[in-house]
Batch of 4 targets.
Target 1
Amino acid sequence: MTSTTDQVAGLDDLAATTLLRFATAGSVDDGKSTLVGRLLHDSKSVLTDQLEAVEAVSAQRGQDTPDLALLTDGLRAEREQGITIDVAYRYFATARRRFILADTPGHVQYTRNMVTGASTADLAVVLVDARNGVIEQTRRHAAVAALLRVPHVVLAVNKMDLVGYEEAAFAKIAEEFTAYASDLGVPEITAIPISALAGDNVVEPSAHMDWYGGPTVLEHLETVPVSHDLTACPARFPVQYVIRPQTAEHPDYRGYAGQIASGVLRVGEAVTVLPSGRTSVIEGIDALGESVDIAWAPQSVTVRLRDDIDISRGDLIAPSASAPATTQDVEATVCHVADQPLAVGARVLLKHTTRTVKAIVKAIPSRLTLDDLSQHPEPGQLVANDIGRVVVRTAEPLALDSYADSRRTGSFLLIDPADGTTLAAGMAGEAFAAHADGAGAVAADDEGWDF
Amino acid sequence: MTTVAHLHEGTDAPYALSHLDALESEAVHIFREVAGEFEKPVILFSGGKDSIVMLHLALKAFAPAPVPFTLLHVDTGHNFPEVLEYRDRTVEKHGLRLHVASVQEYIDAGKLRERPDGTRNPLQTVPLTEAIQKLRFDAVFGGGRRDEEKARAKERVFSLRDEFSQWDPRRQRPELWQLYNGRHAPGEHVRVFPLSNWTELDVWQYIAREGIELPQIYFAHEREVFKRNGMWLTAGEWGGPKEDETPEKRLIRYRTVGDMSCTGAVDSDATTLDAVITEIAASRLTERGATRADDKMSEAAMEDRKREGYF
């Protein structure tokens, strides 16, 4: 059992908080900058010199109030054009949690950026304007969150002050969104009525909405679970590096270094190494200087096996009882992230966990429009910010899970072998969570999209 | 040292990691990715706290084997002697190999010219780039953190640089999941930032948790300093104080450690790690805002230096 270590006195509260990665989606018009600004400001994460710098630049430009977008628009081009070009990462903490916020821009390269931000997020905040309700953009945000399998989605119904703080207005939007997002397979949706400008239900509970008894945005961020029941998912351990000191002190040490991608590893467990299929038993787990009997995702550890078998970077160690099948034929949904298009017949590199193999794009059965989930069969190619289905043949077998089962071992990149450009982000298997009965699909009757 | 975060019952039981464990695991994963994919990586090591934490993580990532990387320090010629002493002692202790690129040698050889303001920070870029080219490093670990500065907030974990070390923020590869793309052409290299997601406070908490030794100038001590551009600079041979600047003895510590000509001290009586952490948690200034003259040159000072190939 991993020990609970005594902390240096006085540091307990600060050092033993958990980490939540979340992404925000929405445009400036929805009040996203105001919401982010308020979260940072009210959690005292914007410091005096940063605020002074923002105030000075805002004043220089003749603006009356500090433009909080300047806090995150880090590049000269962004400030000059007044637009956010790229995902900005912000860091803040409360007494309960540390947060990593991926703030994704609303307009330029929208899909690419939101997919990037959502790929590592445990939670996504989707903002809507209470006056406009669920619009095309809202559906697009819900679709990206569903596609990327973000476990928790918060619908922040903003500008409640402009609809008289009326429960009916909120309830209608919350209901419509929840129905839509659940249909796409989003497992958990929390709707919160807020006014980012007035501060209602962002950090402090609102004095204007007695009818709402739920958490504020920050309270929800602080309490939402960041781990799920790992015992329910099969363990996956991609080998990054083989540690062989060959020193007088450790003449025979041979350990496989990696980060547990999912599930729990235990000493004594029978394991299979993929793609070779060789089997052994976990003899020891070294958790960064401490020998342990059990370790879980996302710990970085070094695993020692009972038998001396041929294992190198790119191999996957998994419990024999739940080892994945290997395949050279990958069907997946991809988000195309490069400026150059991806066409049928393209020769690419596919990077999956720690393994990079040659691959060829055999088919692009369809392209998906996120706004209405309509499909366009046989587009021939995908261009920047397109989302589509691809069929890829790899030169070597991959131990690939369905993205629905494991975000870490079901995802991959397609890379241009000529110049190293990251072309596309891939998610193996079906695009959206299937309904239990296979019916009730959102809009699909087309082949290639099995909802 | 794994800590089960069990403070908030009902929230994250039973398989959660504390935020320090999560950040540590992420950084170790990054080190191992580089070891697995690159031919000749190097760690930029200045003896500052971020590079010290990087080295500590690298040692843990490959134990019980030695770190499979060498170290590179760009010595401005105006580095704190206490820090250089720490650097050499650390290299010795872990049996590492250190390369030093010397700004002073470039100046003496007439290849670089001293700036009128005496600041040597921007002068580090050329020696750094030439060392990378000459020694053929293909991956260069830097201790930069996204929370430090707004241009750094846009930096990738794996950041591709051309043969001139230039950074083009508008042509960065999107970075998804934990899949880092380190493909590069001969002559290009990748800057790698394992501490991207760490904050200043995380770094200090981690130092305290792991019991990592730091150069003494990070803790409160009496020092002769003088005021320039609103910052307390240390008096010394590097060029201060000038005639109109008066040195005085103050109780200070350093919040960042860089070139003496542009690294300011802060008034502090924090002599222990606990006291430093308490001080930082309460501070209303960012670490660069409080201590770095080079970032005050303009709104885009860091972006410009980074484009040129700076750390």
Target 2
Amino acid sequence: MNKNDIKLIIIILIIAIMILIVIAISDNNKNTKKALIYYDNNLIKTIDLNVEETQEYTVEGYNGEVKIIVENGKIKVDEENSPLHLCSKQGFIEKNYESIVCLPNKIIIKITSDSQEQYDTIIR
Amino acid sequence: MAKKRKFKKGVLPKLLILLIGFLIIIFLIICLLKKISTPKYKEYTKSLNYMDTVIDIKLYTTNEKQANTALEEIEKIYKHYHELTDRYNAYDGINNIYTINTTQEVKKLEIERDLYNILDYGINWYYKSNGLLDINVGNLTNLWKQYRDNNNGIPSNDELFKISGLDIKNIVLYDDNQILTGNVNIDLGALAKGYATEVVHHYLNSIGLDNYLINAGGTVLAGKNIDSQKFKVGIQDPDNSASILKDGNKDLTLKVSNKVITSSGGYERFYEYDGVRYHHIIDPNTKMPANNMKSVSVITDNAMLGDALSTTLFLMSIETGQEFVKQFDGVEVIWYSNDNEIIKTPGISKYE
């Protein structure tokens, strides 16, 4: 085995690694992140967080409408009616299992990455 | 140095090394091509609030325009049937259940074909269910709702049995577009969600969108999943809304593709009085909330049938229900008894 053979083996390895990288990257955008919104412990809404442009939603809370804003992978409560406005002051959340809790409005927002979810849906 | 010697000592012919190298590259290129050529499905979701329930829609398609049109169209369908079957509100330009129930005068009232068809379907189910699924029980529903909203006490036997107008024969339909008013109080709660969902089902088939999952409360419409997997549907525990019904040690999960699952149970709208739970599915014979089981779930091909069937089964004893379902082809059932026992039709094993 001479120097050229070793060069050839290295070239083959580099090509193989490059192709593997391309495959790995093309797999990456499968990650779906969602926000789950609960009212009084019941799931009332699921929002896909992988959005390009800013989106607005309103849900009905105990004290009236709760306005929610979604922006590339993040979610926050923008407006709600409560004595201290704790949950609209909290701002954006984006990490898996982070949550916003609006006790006066009985609203809970959770983030999940659904790649490991056990069920596609639950029938009540 | 040691490495170099190893190469020199190696007996692998150069050709073999080359061959293996090229095979690896070809294999990886095939993988890459396969990846590129499989279209990328995206999930399009929407949550609606109609017919007293949250309707979660998930569509999976490669065509964004188709997805957005479909989401709009589906919302239109649910909104349309919500307005037609609404018992508490009137809407401009349509005669709906509210209009029918509140018209005191005995006359023929013109109604839309869609509403006519649900009413006709409801009357047929009255006879099919031996009078258990009754759509002319609005007066009874109202009485129970009044007690539920006040969350205090239950109606007396006197109150329950003096309610008038509870006869399916009082609903008279004419000419595909008219109903006789004055003597009816209709409640389509047991049928409306399933009926609208089946209309959505037809719509999705007609535009060739195959991959979807719609959850309209007690009605789940599952199309094909995007991978070869089936959709996994968990059944909620009637006693604990945070967990899944257990079958022995494992969660009760149904794996379905192109099927409809419908559930009826006494845990959706209820109140408690004297430690007893009073829910909203009323037995027309006893005029009390049905107490035959905790819940029942049905797998069918048709949401209209599924919704009517799960309510009917909820109003029968489990034994009667086991006989009753034998007349329907391809229908499988899971009962959850008052003693926390799970009873299944034999065909359920296909979906576990």
Target 3
Amino acid sequence: MSSKSDILAALGSGALKPHPLPQVEIAPRLDDLVGQFEASVKAVGGTLIRDNALAALQQQVASLVADGQQVISQVADVRGNRATPEDPHALRDINYAVIQGELAVAENGAVWVTEQGAGIRIAPFICENLLLVVRAEQLVANMHEALKRVNLENVGYGTFISGPSKTADIEQALVIGAHGACTLTVYLL
Amino acid sequence: MKIALFIPCLVNQLMPQVAIATLELLEKLGHQVILPQGQTCCGQPMTNSGCFNEARSTVLKLLNAFKGVDCDAIVCPAASCLVAAKENFHEFDNSAEAQAVLNKLYELTEFLHDIAPVGEFKRPLAYKVSMQMSCHGLRMLTLAKATESMTPEYNKLEALLNKVPNIEVVYPEPHDECCGFGGTFAMDEGAVSAKMGKDKATAHANTGARYVVGYDPSCLMHLDGMIRRLKLPIETRHLAQILNDAI
Amino acid sequence: MATTTTANHAEKAEIFCRDESRVDWHSKALWLLRQKRDRAASSLPEWEQLRELGSQYKLHTLSHLGQYLEQFEANCLKQGIQVHWAKDGAEHNRIVHEILAKHQVKKLVKSKSMLTEECHLNPYLEQHGIEVIDTDLGERIIQLNKQPPSHIVVPAIHLKKEEVGELFHEKIGTEKGASDPTYLTRAARQHLREQFLSADAAMTGVNMAIADQGAIVVCTNEGNADMGGNLPGLTLHSMGIDKMVPNMEAASVLLRTLARNAIGQPITTYSSFYHGPKPGGEMHIIIVDNGRTKALQDELLAESLKCIRCGGCINTCPVYRRSGGYSYNYFIPGPIGIAVGAQQDDTNTTAWACTLCGSCTYVCPTKVPLDKIIAYQRRLKAEQGKLPYGKERYMPIVGKVMGSATVFNCAMSVARFSLRHLPHAMLKPFSGAWGKYRELPKAPKTSFDTWYKQNRSK
């Protein structure tokens, strides 16, 4: 406890005069949210499916399963061929994960995924390919609007996912597919 | 207007042509121009090195040269020295007299653009000039929008040059990267400074302009040394020299 | 002045500059990031407003930091997160080791954390028999290459792809001569996948800690923090006290500027909110001071703690791009490295590795007045009598010559003054290095003073 009290005591004599808590007063850009979102998803290396999205997803997953791909689905009405394990390591061979997102952000193509939606925290990362489902009415303009709606009350873990994993650590050359999913498809219902 | 010239040491000793052009230009524009005696240096070589004690007497000497001088404005054709003078006057003297001097201090570009705006110039100059957007004038005196800023575009140097018939204004790429002078930096960090100077001088020459034009003599002197070493087909000119030719 | 065997900034920079084509390559790679940043920033009409908000949120938090740290801790505890406090790097390392030892951890996967660099955690844990695997691709490259990071966001920016190819061939068995970035990245993915799956614990840095939630935010593009953090049961997160923000609204501001300013992306691929241990697991947060409360005792240095480590100032810095990340004698290079590390530089030169051009200050997403802090660091060094490059000898001379001559004396003796004193005193800055790289100024016949007397004085 002593380091804590040392730190707090030292903070008591800080030189900064008290600054007031600011507030964000930025008008969200509301024109053509779906169009903005689609452009953002594309810009970050993902794909957006917006026409008959649920049927397209069901068809896609059915054909993947028929091909023998390992698919875990956490979305009702979409049937994969793998159950949610207790040990996350058991998902090491997953090819596709289908996960329900709770919120989508037009300005950056991000989709908010919680541990409840993912079923198990590792699911959106350990899969080779990630299929995210999000409802059009859950699309917001920007991060201010998004974080107003995020409620962490019963959420131990949640993540905004914007595109497939990527890196540019070798000579600034962009490579899609670092440690997380190598492809990302967003189905907008 | 009655104008007192602030001619920093570098301009006085090594680039008198810039001071002469400033004087002549202001006179031709109808101002009465005086040169208060006793000016040496703004103290920047010392204060930029952290040596405030060593700067004190120099700064106060410069400040005293302007205290009580009967004028409407104090104008300086060297942006970096002007910024340093402003900061250093404030550092060493908080009197009302010092504040009166501070209130009248202007860099030449801002004076011609904001304080006593000039009209169109008469004589056409049919050549290309490459803008030297030196750092202290750009970011501390805000003579133009810096490329880092996402505010509306403006550029007082370009606005003034655009009043000269036929002149063509171009920019080096990148637009406003530092030339590497940095006062004593040019000596302390010779290799990096020289590489920055080389890149900047080359970028100016690549525009095909006849002159590099700027508001900061120290950067122009640095670029001139670089241009002559590299034998690049371009020369440096101060804004005052161009406008004095055009009037 | 203290003598030291470490090369000073100018010496290291001079060596870096000898290979000019490499300097050009390095400078261009970083300038590309600046250009991407400019495009991303300009796409938001509210960009400058976001910078101001970022600054205000940080100033507010830093000026109420004790209160927010306590609120944060209380909320973490409610979530079942264990919170530890460390006053310095040594205590931080000790805490981390104790937790790992208790769980008999043999292998730790770690995502990027400049704080653990600052605390020298890796060598400490390795000495205690724990294998540490850095999982960010750039960090893994330099870990395999036994080098420190040369940049805080792109730590292997100094290496060419051929050099990475050679390294990977030797260390992880890629094909000899292969240097395609996609091929090398895929190989690293496979190599690190095995490390993730066999790790006993994971550790991450922290981008933001949200006081009223008891949550931390970790941002990566690669997904390495989340691959690590969501596999083993035990996770640790190290944060400086400066990572605190009051609420989600503040986080929303920084999440809009961080990646745009760093690399020109609208947001990092993953912005993850860790708000409690996974079922059956343990989550630890270590809150570290290590000199930050000291910086807060100074009104100007305190502003350096507004930094969110985007690296934007480093990318724009014309000196960094031409001197490289290893020239600064500190684990953080560039403007922010000077601002927070100059006092620890025994060569007393990094504070002068800057032209005070101010580009960094204009780029900064939280308006850290970097050029002012760097100038101030010089002043602090001068007050300690720690001046570099012979300044302690020549500065008093310059000061005396410029300041002592009387008005009349000065006016009348310009010629004599110039001939006798300038080459030694005033022209000191222009000798030596000046003439080595540039032509000396063309000396005019007279000074302006003299001209004025001849042409205007009546």
Target 4
Amino acid sequence: MSGFWIMVTGALVASCCGILGCFLILRRMALVGDAISHSVLPGIVIAFLVSGSRDSVFMLFGAAIIGFVTVFLIQLFQNSGVQGDASIGVVFTSLFAAGVLLISLNASQVDLDLDCVLYGEIAYVHWNQLMINGVEVGPKAVWLLGITLFLIVAVIGLFYKQFKLCAFDPALAAAIGIPVALFHYVLMGLVSMATVSSFESVGAILVVGLLIVPPATAYLLTDRLGTMIGLSLVIGVISSIAGYYTAAVLDASIAGCMVCVAGVLFLLAFLFSPSHGLVVRKLRQRASTAREAY
Amino acid sequence: MSGMLNLFTDPNLQWILIGSMLLGLSTGVIGTFAYLRKQSLIGDTLAHAALPGICIAFMLTGVKSVGYFMIGAIVAGMIATVGISWITRHSRIKQDAAMGIVLSVFFGLGIVLLTQIQHSSYGNQSGLDKFLFGQAASMTASDVYTMTGVAVLLIVACALLFKEFKLISFDSGYARGLGFSVTALEQLLLWLVTVAVVVGIQAVGVVLVAALLITPAVSARYWTDRLGVMTVLSGLFGALSGAIGTWISAGTDQLPTGPLSVLTASALFVASVLFGPRRGIVAKIVRRYSAKKEWAAENGAESLPESKTGSSVKDREVSA
């Protein structure tokens, strides 16, 4: 049963990240997820210090707030003229440094394990069951991720056209009256939500991996946004299921294996994609030079 | 407070001070080029990508030696840079996504290897994490020698290849036209960054080493438009944040040096954003205000509201 829940959690994280990652890659903001997953540290520590408990509700709340602060600060610096990638880097490292300082200032009270916060363990997902009226209704993480996924699908589904236009041509979107900045913040808010609700159960690295690698793989396979999102979902779910079984065979970290499987899938698409693959393009080039030689 | 004064007498603290300053100097200098080439997050990527290298180095040698770890990390970092250039050159995936892919896949692989080490009979692996999270306070004379060597290497390389790096930072197409091997130069620059990052990991840890590369360079960008001045300034900012971080850390019991240096660099960055001579926010406000006054003086007071709407439309465009 634990295997089932682990795969469900992995698939849910993959779905949340797969949908949002497509937009991030198109907007060239792929590393925002990485930034958010690192900068939530001070939020978690502050929530812990204020509430005094290690209840995940408080931590989630703290992390979510800092996630929004991160997004806001990145945008603020970008608007004042800092290069996009540099603005991401400056903000998340500063917040992370503040988090580390907060931990060392309160070292006697905080027994938070840094590795544990950042590299959560998906294998323990089924230990943390949600109880309703004394009946176990499934792991907390699955419910949380399910709600997040529902929200993401609802928002993206409702405003699909607007998000699509903002991703490809923000200037045109602004010209025809779409509030580009608002949609940007909504997208970043969703990314922040997905990151925060995933990282506790699966760790920052799996979030970053699933946010970037499956959408990038899908990007190499198609030219249509709808297809890209669908493919990215399929690739994400395949990675999480195949990753689980690989981890079982190798007796290794499940999250790590899921990312590795996604990496292998990316490599396959990179080499053999029918439209953009390296090998296929080389073959086509050779064929066309051969044709010219005749 | 006595610790802060001790800084100038305590030999142990002096080593840390020199080490942090040299580290800040060299990462600041090399970070300038990474920033201009829009590769600010390369530091983060390479720091994470070092993990599998460290694990493999440990598996092969079976000893917890910083020297072997550094070699492993540098080799892994170099493979990662090749991977990033390969993905961006041979597919339509952009640089940021390529960095993200390399970062997460390498780190995932590293975690898999780490669990393999834990589950097998390699014995105690606790030193591995310590290498990753960094311990500036335990810096010793030999670490400082390594850092001096690296700093000299990086600065000499940047000085010798300044013209070439300048060209590929601003106009790589032109560089290619002049007959420079742009690919080789780009790769060389990335390898220099790798060396700087791996040395930095030891002092401040995986996450914060990214800041040493970016923050001084972005701050320096606010003060000048000349690359030479910017490189020197960025190195100075890096060294200054290292020094101040060490100084504050020496004055207190439990505050680690790495995060303090990073926060000092961030403070310098905020100051630069606010008070930079031409691009700074204050300078911009002053300029806008004086332009508005000039406009009002030229056209009479009645056209003022018009200029106001004009500027707010422009603001909206910028924020969009």
